[in-house]
Amino acid sequence: MLREKQVVRTDNAPKPAGQYSQGVLAGNFVFVAGQVGIDPQTRIAPKGISAQTKQCLENVKAILAASGATLDGVVRVGVYLRNMEDFAEMNSVFGLYFPEFPPARTTIQAVLASDFLIEIDVIALKP
Asked: Three-class SS of residue 93?
């Protein structure tokens, strides 16, 4: 039975825009909230799906690092695209972050806030 959970916070990823945590550590699992392609220092999203995908994954990586986990521990990814026509370009960048043993992934088209083209959430195992 799960007895405790710990909130994960870092200044190296965007601060939550609502009542949620950047991540939650529960047992050996890290649950990372949906990250958009916004730079945590400038609060600006780069132009284009490739740049936003890269920034999303950098934000995810920062939250995982704050929990003591890495991208190698990611077991599941949810990808939410504004436009499914961006799939191939997103997938190309995604592959750079998960070159071997890619995690299970679901990709869906979604209505996203502001001008964001992509949002990514993950579940990872902490070593």
From this structure: helix
Q: How many residues does the chain have?
A: 127
Residue type at 33 in one-letter notation: A
Fold observed for domain 5-125: 60s Ribosomal Protein L30; Chain: A; (3.30.1330)
Identify whether the C-beta of residue 74 lies closer than 8 Å to the C-beta of residue 123: yes
Please give the full DSSP string across 79-95, using - where no structure is assigned. Answer: EEES-GGGHHHHHHHHH
The pTM for the full model equals 0.95
pLDDT digits (tens, 9 = 90+) for 13-43: 999 989 999 999 999 999 999 999 999 999 9
User: Which sequence spans correspond to the domains of the chain?
Assistant: 5-125
